[in-house]
Write a structure and sequence with these properties.
heterodimer, A: 246 residues, alpha/beta, Rossmann fold, 10 strands, B: mainly alpha, two-stranded antiparallel sheet, two-stranded antiparallel ribbon, 65% helix
Amino acid sequence: MSGKTLHLENLTVSFDGFKALNELTLQIEPGELRCIIGPNGAGKTTMMDVITGKTRPDSGTVTFGEDLDLLSMSEPEIAQAGIGRKFQKPTIFERLTVFENLELALAGDKSFLKTLFARRTTAQDTRIYEVLEIIGLSRQHQALGGILAHGQKQWLEIGMLMMQNPDLLLVDEPVAGMTPQEIERTAGLLQSLAGEHSVVVVEHDMEFVRSIAKRVTVLHEGHVLAEGDMDQVQKDPRVIEVYLGA
Amino acid sequence: MGALALIAILVPLLNQAVPASSPFHVSAYGLTLIGKYLCYALLALSVDLIWGYCGILSLGQAAFFSLGGYAMGMYLMRQIGTRGVYGDPILPDFMVFLNYKSLPWFWHGFNHFGLALLMVAVAPGLLAFVFGWFAFRSRVTGVYLSIITQALTYALMLAFFRNDMGFGGNNGFTDFKDILGFNLHSDRVRVVLLVITCIMVAVSYLVCRMIVSSRAGRVIRAIRDAESRTRFLGYRVESYKLWIFVFSAILAGIAGALYVPLIGIINPSEFSPINSIEVVIWVAVGGRGTLYGAAAGAFLVNYAKTYFTTSIPEAWNYALGALFVLVTLFLPRGIVGLVSGRVRKPPKSEPLHAPANSPERSNE
């Protein structure tokens, strides 16, 4: 396992006085599958924004691996460093084909001149077809992304993350709007990714979290309220009060 | 492409070989008109590349067109030499008239055709680079970017109107005599210019086609449709936008440079913001994001403009506006979308079944 540890320390982000993150400290180990839950406004998405470079924190540090300071890097640099992100709302390229969506996500040199003259190698083609198989979209590979069903879009986006071959996958609400069967498949997919990659899943669906999580972190008002396995967390009276009990 | 080849062959033939009395004869006026449409088609290509494929609505494309035109104009002015009204071997007429004692520094070297050609690309390219560098890095997008590109071309128009800029003030450049020693007023030379214009449009079309069908082209469309997704995949969105913007500006500059010797005049009104907006209308009417649609739109709208401004001049602006509204409402994919009648060209870029080896992508 060649993964890297993600370490957040004392992160604070405020928007017009409202503290979206408040002294948040969190560590994700290599190969871990971590679920992050919490009520609306707990800071889950803000946390992902900070890790991926979209939002700059007021204070705190984010390090990846030995010595990578993510706060000094741009979004593409962070992506190239091995952090992939799936958005809350499935975000794919609707007017490109499924195949092309995956092709663009391929790891490699992503400068303009390189892509201008890029030709796919056989190995890359094989990898794309492999991922198409895994996400169950082999038959739709020629279809435009925009015509896919909601669940398929979610999978395509996860497939794009797999093409990037990142050390860490940040997955925001992967099963929102999915049917029970789709949820089951997604759970299997994410579990198969963990181990080789670290996976952080933000999710509201408690059934889903219970089915995949080994370790759960509960966020509340921008900091960690509780951390542990699902049973521990569910028994925690503070958690029951702010979230599960509601 | 076929249509272009047809123009390149048929028009010179009808102009040169068919007697003036024949109904098929293309007059010198007709020739110039077609040449003008071709330049506009090239300009439309440049807008389609940046707007149709990359989603950047540049409303300052006329600025790049005019800069290319001015670069060519400076060469043509220097070629006049002693044949000007004042007969000064070095200074163009307007400089003598404005009491210039010597040639401003930026006019030096423009007696060389090579330098003029270089500046046709460098002047618009550099402006686009500097402008785009700041705009894209600051993540100015959408309507804000469109507005500052309008401001850019408006500012340049005001600057070029000033006599002390050294570009002839509001008269601009005109009264050209010859290019590379060939008389610009001869029909033969104009035919050659037309053929060169055809070739340039064809080459530019092919280069644009190559760009949009490369992986970089797909990244550019990805940026248009989901910019932040592209960024989180590890693409430097700003640098992609900058490359495309600069390339598009250079295309516009080339269009301007081809336009000036054919039309015989360039003045600051070419910078006028309305010109840039018109180009966008051509592209929208023709069908954006197709390249050939942009060229077709340029021909169609300008032909309509030529026709209507002679028959009912006061109604033209209304007709143009109505055309834009109608196309936006009923033909969101433009005339080309109507003709092709398909939802989208079926993607031919990928093999149907598992990859035996990496297939060459088809060109279109």
